[in-house]
Design brief:
single chain, about 350 residues, alpha/beta, Aspartate Aminotransferase, domain 1, Aspartate Aminotransferase, domain 2, 2 domains, 4-stranded antiparallel β-sheet, 13 strands, binds pyridoxal-5'-phosphate
């Protein structure tokens, strides 16, 4: 009798599924979600809009009107096209699959976003992690040396980085892009609403750069929509490995509607940036806490004991992310998503149970 152990790849058998804890009854500050909902009137209009969607039809594979709206609202340069993904996670996967020639490598600074490594592994690409400096800035010399040594097919630069929140220095980024003349550089701007700095306006200025965005951190994590901006020569190739109906009709319709009201989401992001400043200040005042500068909607904080902090907050019904085991540079670090003012007050109260 056949068993999964006979059939499934050995590396897959050895894996565990991506862990998502059940957050029912908790204040959820572990996944960089926007804590605010849509204003009720807008939500009602959205409901009416979605009620008109033809659920019996397959989605448009390349919804031109939506793509044009993204280009206009987000300021995509004229020489660039847009490819949609079921979240940017799927775009990372498409890039991996399309670039997975035998022996091809993927390179990214570490600690970084786990999906770069995960997706490379699933596509049988070798992953090269280059440690950041201890202050989480880019170790540019190490990056340049690794690029020369490995000639990676793909280099990921998260701008700003997760889980550190670091907005890499533009001159360092430029040196890496210039050195990567045998690579594609994917600049991941998942946190652009909180960074307010972007490479998107320059996406057509380089032949080896594409810029990846998502609406997830802007407040629409549930609809799963990411997009890749780049020269058509690149996007045409990635489009070939895109599952034909990867973004569904409800996602497309919701995005189309909400992009007309993006000012609402932008205002929420602005409020979260203010909350980030307040939270960083409050946490920095707690004895034993070291707060790293963040351009995202989260803070990386080093505490005396990350496990104790995580467990204490869990008991206080606040869910955060203990990232201390992710990488040696993250020893005793936790990542705190910036929430609503009420949530942040509860978070600070929880932190004070340990740090006083
Ligand atoms: C959250 C996150 C993403 C994933 O976004 P989705 O569009 O929700 O898949 C991509 N990159 C980074 C760095 C992130 O933190």
């Amino acid at each position: 009798m056949t068993t999964p152990q006979d059939i499934i790849r050995r590396d897959v058998l050895a894996m565990t599924s991506y862990p998502v804890p059940d957050a029912t009854g908790y204040i959820k500050l572990d996944a960089m979600e926007n804590p605010f909902s849509l204003p009720p009137v807008l939500a009602a209009h959205l409901g009416e809009h979605l009620a008109g969607v033809a659920l019996n039809r397959y989605p448009a594979p390349r919804p031109e009107a939506l793509i044009e709206k993204i280009k206009r609202v987000m300021g995509v340069p004229a020489g660039c096209d847009v490819l949609l993904g079921n979240g940017s996670d799927e775009i990372i996967s498409m890039v991996s699959v399309a670039c997975a020639k035998p022996g091809a490598k993927v390179l990214a600074p570490m600690p970084g976003f786990v999906m770069y490594q995960m997706s490379a592994k699933l596509a049988n690409l070798e992953f090269i992690g280059v440690p950041l400096n201890p202050d989480f800035t880019l170790d540019t010399e190490a990056m340049l040396a690794a690029i020369a040594e490995h000639e990676p097919a793909v280099i990921y630069l998260a701008y700003p980085n997760n889980p550190t929140g670091t907005l890499y220095d533009d001159a360092d980024m430029e040196r890496i892009i210039a050195a990567a003349n045998k690579s594609l550089v994917v600049i991941d701007e998942a946190y652009q609403p909180f960074a307010q700095q972007s490479w998107l306006p320059r996406a057509d200025a380089f032949d080896n750069v594409v810029v990846m965005r998502t609406v997830s951190k802007l407040g629409l994590a549930g609809i799963r929509l990411g997009y890749l901006v780049g020269k058509p020569a690149w996007l045409t190739e990635f489009d070939k490995v895109r599952p034909p109906y990867n973004t569904n009709v409800l996602t497309q319709a919701a995005a189309d509607f909400l992009l007309d009201h993006v000012d609402v989401l932008d205002a929420q992001a602005e409020q979260l940036r203010e909350e980030r400043t307040k939270l960083a200040k409050a946490v920095a005042q707690l004895p034993g806490a070291e707060v790293f500068p963040s351009a995202g909607n989260f803070l990386l904080v080093r505490v005396p004991d990350a496990s104790v902090m995580f467990e204490t907050l869990l008991a206080a019904r606040v869910l955060i992310k203990n990232v201390s085991k992710m990488h040696p540079l993250l020893v005793n670090c936790v990542r705190l998503t910036v929430g609503s003012p009420e949530e942040n007050a509860q978070l600070i109260a929880g932190l004070k149970l340990v740090l006083h």
